[in-house]
Amino acid sequence: GQGMAYSTLLSAHVLNVKASGMSAYADDPTHFARWVLERGFAKPDQGPFYAPRSLYARYMKELLDDLVERERETGRLRLIAEESLSISPTPAGVEVVLANGTSVVGHLAVLATGHDEQP
Ligand SMILES: Cc1cc2nc3c(=O)[nH]c(=O)nc-3n(C[C@H](O)[C@H](O)[C@H](O)COP(=O)(O)OP(=O)(O)OC[C@H]3O[C@@H](n4cnc5c(N)ncnc54)[C@H](O)[C@@H]3O)c2cc1C
């Protein structure tokens, strides 16, 4: 959730996009702006609000925690905090080898490795 962009804890480090442009949901563009207002982090009449990055990390975490809770019964969502070392095609889909020595097999893999300090 945090990635490189939202892991700073300094409150002076704010987003470079205003709250109304930072919704996590493409089909609900004001979701983050409402989240901020509902929790009193901004006032309705204060104009464009650039949230601290740590607040956005909190927003992302809340959404993820909520998803985990909602999918608990279905088993459709499994969070694994591990480095993935390789991805190989298999007859059934893909196999991802993790740094802890285990592997995960799935129908498909999405690479979403974001920004890194090294190219
Ligand atoms: C300094 C900075 C500031 C930014 N500010 C803004 C902003 O204000 N507003 C905005 O909209 N966008 C901003 N961005 C763009 C921002 O990166 C994207 O909005 C968004 O965070 C990207 O999400 P992501 O999930 O694709 O990648 P990330 O959030 O970068 O997440 C990728 C994750 O993959 C993990 N990963 C990488 N390799 C592996 C591996 N081999 N195995 C397991 N895990 C791995 C990483 O550890 C990381 O946690 C900023 C980017 C940077 C670098």
Short characterization:
By secondary structure, the chain is an alpha+beta fold. The protein contains 2 helices and 3 strands. The chain has helices at 31-38, 53-70, and strands at residues 84-90, 93-98, 103-106.
Biggest β-sheet, characterized?
3 strands, antiparallel
Structural domain count: 2
N→C terminal distance? 21 Å
SSE succession: HHEEE
**How many helices in DSSP terms?**
2
Name the ligand types.
Answer: flavin-adenine dinucleotide
Low-pLDDT regions: none
Count the E strands: 3
Q: How large, in whole angstroms, is the Cα Rg?
A: 18 Å
Q: State the helical fraction.
A: 10-25%
> SS-based structural class?
alpha+beta
Morphology call: elongated
User: What share of the residues does DSSP label as strand, in percent?
Assistant: 5-15%
Strand ordering within the main sheet: 1-2-3
Mean pLDDT: 94
